[in-house]
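Hmm, how's this folded?
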Amino acid sequence: MSPVSYQTIKLSKGKHSSPEDGACVLELASMLAGEPFTDHPASVCPVIGSFLRCYNDAIDDDRRQALYECASKVVGSRGSQRGQRARADRLTEWAEEMRRSRRTWFLHSPLRALGRLRKPPIDAVGSYAVHSIPKHTDRTHASALALIDELVAIGVHDERVSARVIAARSRTLDPAA
């Protein structure tokens, strides 16, 4: 039997003790990043990680296998606190969009009202978003995958803008430049 690698591992529900037991999408991300095997890789944004951990466990095996690509996209996504806050805000907004799409909105209005009173904490916003999905369908799965792309892009944009601002400030502060 050949050793398990990031190329041969099957994504499955839950937390795993080693790659031989399987992996969730974030454990795969830790393998791709060359980090210790964990579902909380240091190189992944905690906001994106909170969503993917919960989403990985909420969907069926067929849809879960589509998360392979997400594992590679989120490696290196950890960024500034401002970027994390922007991602959490977008995730909360997406969750509200999902809640509004429910046909039984009147049954969930107390939950929506509670959600408006206070935002979920940054480490729980992923779970909040996944639980807002009315039913896991091909449409909601496509929306979740697009959301991951959007969340990764938020951080990339934030970091590029920050780098340009820092570079511009250093040029204006340094008379020799």
Observations:
- DSSP finds eight helices and no strands in the chain.
- Residues 108-114, 168-175 have pLDDT under 50 and may be disordered.
- The two ends are 60 Å apart (CA to CA).
